[in-house]
Amino acid sequence: MSAPASLNSASAAARPRWVRIFCGCEDLVVVAILAVMMVLPVIEILLRKFFNGGVPASATIVQHLVLAVGMLGGAIAARENRLLALSAAAQWFKGGALTASRVVGFGFAAAVSALLCTSSWEFVLSQRSLGKVFAYGLPLWIVQLLLVAGFGLVALRLVWTVAPQWRWRAATFILAAGMIVLALMGPFSPEQLRWPAMIVLCVAVALGAPVFTALGGAAMILLWTAGEPVTPVLLKHYSLTVNPTLPSIPLFTLAGYFLAESGAARRLVRLFQALFGGMRGGPAIVTTLVCAFFTSFTGASGATILALGGVLMPVLMTANYSERNSIGLLTGAGSLGMLFPPCLPPILYAIIASSGNVVSVSIEQMFLGGLLPGLLLVGLTAWWGVSKGPRAGQDGRQPFERHEAWAATKAAKWELLVPVIALTALFSGFATPVEAAALTAFYTFLVSVIIHRDLHLIRDVPRVISECGLLVGGVMLILGVALGFTHYLVDAQIPDQAVEWTTGAIHSKWLFLLGLNLVLLVVGGLVEIYAAIVVVVPLLVPLGVAYGINPVHLGIIFLANMELGFLAPPVGLNLLLASYRFNKPMSEVTKASLPMLGVMVVGVLLITYVPWLTTWLPSLFH
After folding, report:
1. What is the pTM of this model?
2. 619: how many CB neighbours lie within 10 A of its CB?
3. Secondary structure of 513-559 in the HEC alphabet?
4. In this structure, how many other beta carbons lie within 10 angstroms of the beta carbon of residue 440?
5. Phi, psi of 246, deg, nearest 5
6. Using 50, 70 and 90 to split pLDDT, how confident is the model at 1?
7. Do 464 and 568 belong to one domain?
8. Mean pLDDT of the chain
9. I need a surface site. Which of 159, 199, 303, 552 has the fewest CB within 10 A?
């Protein structure tokens, strides 16, 4: 979880002037990088369409800009103390005990980041000897130095942000340095240190070490104690961040940020209220549809609950929904839309599932396969909301007004075109997935800044883009090192052993799917979704092949269970965010969300055992 914005603002105001200037320059660089990523593919489309040409090396440039925004955005996230972590220590300790626990967690994280920095330097030196050229004569190794700078900055900032007092910073630095010295120069062999190091890792994660250092630390510990070099962690990190399709993730994220920070939520709520508000349970239908629309663009980051909770909660309460049912509905609906285009998890699943050369899954297939299952989950959620609504005459329903519906449609017409733009670009063939994402981001920029003028070009746009870069950086750090962890699993033949054991113990495909749902429910409730995709999917795909499960169907089952995991107690992300947004205890939010959890379980089981819901549409376009 991120640090509260008020704390970040306070700490930013207390920084020396030269530090504030440096931080402002960092933010502006991230803004410039994301702006170029958004504009360059659009220019490429126009040049190809009207001049039969293009920008030389534009695809390579955009791919490596992902590396730049990932490393610099991660450094900014570390600067603002907003790297994703379990943050369990804050629930257990207070005062000096909390600070001491942060020293342990951040000290371990700083040690891992420093080792990633040194390994990055070794990786860059190995690449320099190959003499590869990036573009326009620039050596590739110079661009790859971003890895060294990024991990180095993260390490330093983990030490700096542990506490304002120098003694705690010094203690964190000494602890991190001591861990490195013990590992590299201590009297113990690597094999002897495997399990002690893994125990220290688990303790550090429980005390607040960021998720990326947990995955990166585990990968390096396992490789090092097995007598293998740790450089593959950096190689995998680099190969993922410059994947040809990966730029679509930050670009669709940027589109979601423009929507969330503009007045789009207000206009869409007005529209759906005008269209469905006069029906029985209309406010529940409005809540479900608006949440699904927003999540499809903001991804599975929980932004939907934070952005729409304050708008939709009064709508439900005004319609005489109970507070408990309102919280339960908003918490459950907060992850709807994850299966719809252009949401990020299906894109990442297609990339990771296809990377092992076992199956081939396209982004278009994933979105086609997720459409009917996604509509099923939306329908079940709306049905539950309608069933919990007040009786007729007590819900404050207003009759349908044609003039208001028309006015609301005109006001929201530009937002309604966003999915049309994204889908047309994705499925028409005139743009690549990255170009489709850039076009969508550019369109939402025009709608927010030029058409509606919700965002001021100078005052608001840099802030929004910088915030997007911070999120993208944190996610990219997790994805890259998670792939390094996956490399170890594959190198140790864990997927092959899993297939051999599972197929020997479970002979029924349907029984396997039931067990898979149970395992994925636990994974979804405990593991950050992007890390889960990178780590679990390479293990899952060979099992799906062994049982003859369609890879698109397997992907939708996986993602539907991850969506279900957002509601799974005790630490489902939606439960945490709803508790924060509505200022309610976790226990109260969990009780309110249990009925929605049951509804979603029914939906996931239908998706699992009725394969044609997933496979029918992709088969039509095969």
Report:
1. 0.88
2. 14
3. HHHHHHHHHHHHHHCCHHHHHHHHHHHHHHHHHHCCCCHHHHHHHHH
4. 30
5. -60, -30
6. very low
7. yes
8. 88
9. 199
